[in-house]
Amino acid sequence: MTFIAVSIPVNAPEDIGVAMAHAAASVEAGAELVEWRIDDWPSIEGSAAVVAGLVGDSPASSILTVRSVTEGGGFEGSADELATFLRAVAATDACPRYVDIEYAMWIESEALRAAVDELHEDVGLILSMHDMLGRPDDLLRRAVDMQAEEAADVVKIVWRARSTRDNLEAFELLRHRSKPMIALCMGELGLPSRVLAGRAGGFLTFASSAAGETADGQCDVTTLVQRYRFRALRPETMVYGIVGWPITHSLSPIVHNEGFTSAGIDAVLLPLPVLKGWESFKATMAVLLSDPSFNLRGLCVTVPHKEHALRFVREAGGAVSDIAERAGAANTIVIGPDGALAADNTDAPAIIETLGCDPSGSRVALLGAGGAARAAIASLVEAGARVDVFNRGAERAAALVETMDNPMCTLGDLDEVSGYDIVLNTTSVGMEGGPEPDGNPVEDLGLPAWVIEEAGVVYECVYAPRRTPLVRAALAADTPVVTGEAMFLAQAIRQFRLWTGCEPSSDRWRQLID
Ligand code: ATR
């Protein structure tokens, strides 16, 4: 079994009360171990005695950790100073389940090795290393050397993920371990290593409490246990992902994981952030698909990779649905058990389904020229609407209109703007974490504000936040508005059907994201 260890910072002995409450709540939520991060304590007079109390009162078995500044913590002292502190702790007869000692200090200081030896005989040793910048060049040698240290009960190797590939390497380390091991990646890109640690046979994964993260990229115990079903994940568990940048605010993990749970499907959906650009997308896909043990079975694809998704599947000889072909963009990839790929576009039908009116014969001001714009145009034109495209980059808009090759889709002309029945935003302007979170795309693209007032409906594809500047402007003008979560839900339901053949509960999903 792989433990969940909640990592709790305790900056000074007087913070113990609050820290204990965080620990108790985390244990209640599912953590089995509590890591007490007492980085500053070695320099506090008499604090060793307090350690005994902290360990004795801990709501679950403890890990005592003094993390150095070099490895992401706050301890500025030397290995010998840490040894002095540990000897004082040993004298109190405190008995944490584990003490975490950094490998660099361990090999440097004989005094530290001796001090660890003096600890209560039931205290286990976690020998650790953390690279705050990225994957160390000598990762494999370090893994071998650390495991060769006889005194180590558990070896812990952590580094900052620079790409999704790092997670797979962490799993690889775990597969080839010769003693209990923790292999985790820090940062936004490292979440799979934390969530799938159990599936890969890790000794533990770290999670955060309400006190906040002690390492970049930890998720909290409740999210780990409930949303990602940490306890239920097995080597056979199918993995799905949401690919895009940024995806911190994506609702996809919330709804799809609920869908898997309710339908009794052994699968988990994780954020798999992929940096901008075709090369990053292609490289990440190649890595994820090359490791059958990862068991990747499907992807939601979002900004800025929808066109890349289509291209990738097409170049790999996979199947492309008609609507994805017409849109020139895919937001869904289905991966068969044999690795066969299929690309689809659920944005396109979702827009028509949630528009709230029959678009036939209506005039649409379409904002944006990316993947979502292509899906919207393909479905609107098919439904009989006339679409004018407005985009920041004129060349991209022109190329889009050209590839659509349909007289019903033309370039918008700012000098000849007239009333539109539908104003539809597919740009990322107004999106939390996006390039311009406070922007209104109508204003940004130079359209007059009255197009919002005169529109029959303003349709917003951005769902984080719910009230984007465009939605607020439409509400202020008393124009009917369709907010981003309507489209999000409709396209997500279709994705879930494509992956699983099952029908999720739309009411439940709506409640979850409200
Ligand atoms: P998606 O595939 O989801 O549509 P995308 O391909 O990145 O994502 O497209 C994002 C859209 O938002 C593009 O139309 C982009 O305009 P450019 O083609 O000029 O890049 C638009 N966009 C992004 N940031 C913008 C900004 N600050 N102002 C106006 N438009 C912006």
How would you describe this structure to a colleague?
With 514 residues, this protein is an alpha/beta fold. It contains 21 helices and 20 strands. The strands form three sheets. The protein has an eight-stranded parallel sheet with strand order 7-6-5-4-3-2-1-8. Helix 3 links the parallel strand 3 and strand 4 (98-102). It starts with a strand and ends with a helix. The mean pLDDT is 96. Bound molecules: 2'-monophosphoadenosine-5'-diphosphate (ATR). 2'-monophosphoadenosine-5'-diphosphate binds next to helix 15.
User: What composes the largest sheet?
Assistant: 8 strands, parallel
Low-confidence stretches: none
Strand order of the largest sheet: 7-6-5-4-3-2-1-8
How many DSSP E strands? Answer: 20
Q: Which cofactors or ions or other ligands sit in this model?
A: 2'-monophosphoadenosine-5'-diphosphate
Shape: elongated
Please describe the structure with a list of short key phrases separated by commas or semicolons.
514 residues; alpha/beta; 8-stranded parallel beta sheet; 21 helices; 20 strands; elongated; binds 2'-monophosphoadenosine-5'-diphosphate
